[in-house]
């Protein structure tokens, strides 16, 4: 396994491998790897000749009052995880490598889909995500890139960028990996207090409530009525956390739901004192 720190070296390596006819699977991360990331690496390993993992805490996707400085980092442990999962190259650039001329930083708009859900409370977040993902795609030149379904909104905006810019990259998604009580694996889970951690399982339980409500909904049941019951369930069971959103949208276009038999996403975010957590369930073409 090789560790590459410089952008030009990463691009040269990828160019050579593609010239040799090798396929590259790419897993972009901000590090502090957990079982969810491992699932992405396993899938990439199955489907490609080579696997590239990036570890970069991207400053442009954090707002001024967010957790960039305190985001958990564990590079040496992450390198061990990468090696165990057969990663060929770990790309670990500094911010100066990814943004060598900050005063010339191009802006990107992630569009309307990025103004909802997480985008509503984190303005500019997905614009920053797209900037760094596009740069990483240019450097790693993957055939396929792997994302977790927990980050469904991120997947939707990345797919939109790939389509808009005619990028020859297949975006692959992998099922959310969960704790025994259903909590979605996340690097931010490590920051929860004991009480917050116990309460955090409510996110997943609430999604099960939504699925039941939709399954039992009559023809006249509105998505707003389901959301109201969902939010009431959350508020009744949360004392430490505050609901940021608990919303039903069509998927992947993120519009108000008019037909509950069509593809939809039920997405929830809860702000705890120590961390903000998200989760979702997607019904798309009969597949979760």
UniProtKB/TrEMBL annotation:
It comes from Aureibacillus halotolerans. Belongs to the pantothenate synthetase family. It holds the Pfam family Pantoate_ligase. It comes from the Bacteria. SUPFAM superfamilies: Nucleotidylyl transferase. This is Pantothenate synthetase. HAMAP family: PanC. The lineage of its organism: Bacteria, Bacillati, Bacillota, Bacilli, Bacillales. One of its GO terms (cellular component) is cytosol. Its EC number is 6.3.2.1.
């Amino acid at each position: 396994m090789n560790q590459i720190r410089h952008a030009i070296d990463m691009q040269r390596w990828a160019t050579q491998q593609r010239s040799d006819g090798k396929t590259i699977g790419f897993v972009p991360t901000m590090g502090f790897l957990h079982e969810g990331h491992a699932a992405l690496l396993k899938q990439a390993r199955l489907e490609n000749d080579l696997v590239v993992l990036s570890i970069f805490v991207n400053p442009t996707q954090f707002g001024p009052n967010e957790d960039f400085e305190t985001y958990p980092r564990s590079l040496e442990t992450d390198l061990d995880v990468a090696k165990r999962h057969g990663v060929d190259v770990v790309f670990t650039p500094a911010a100066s490598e990814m943004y060598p001329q900050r005063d010339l930083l191009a802006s990107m708009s992630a569009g309307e889909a990025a103004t909802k859900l997480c985008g509503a409370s984190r303005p500019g977040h997905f614009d920053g995500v797209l900037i760094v993902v596009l740069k990483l795609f240019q450097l790693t030149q993957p055939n396929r890139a792997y994302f977790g379904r927990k980050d469904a909104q991120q997947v939707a905006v990345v797919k939109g960028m790939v389509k808009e810019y005619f990028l020859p990259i297949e975006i692959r998604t992998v099922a959310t990996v969960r704790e025994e009580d259903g909590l979605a694996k996340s690097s931010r889970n490590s920051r929860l207090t004991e009480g917050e951690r116990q309460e955090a399982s409510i996110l997943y339980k609430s999604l099960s409530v939504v699925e039941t409500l939709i399954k039992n909904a009559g023809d006249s049941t509105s998505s707003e009525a389901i959301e109201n019951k969902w939010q009431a369930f959350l508020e009744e069971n949360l004392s430490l956390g505050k609901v940021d959103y608990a919303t039903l949208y069509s998927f992947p276009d993120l519009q108000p739901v008019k037909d509950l038999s069509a593809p939809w996403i039920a997405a929830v975010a809860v702000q705890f004192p120590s961390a903000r957590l998200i989760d979702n369930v997607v019904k798309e073409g009969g597949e979760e």
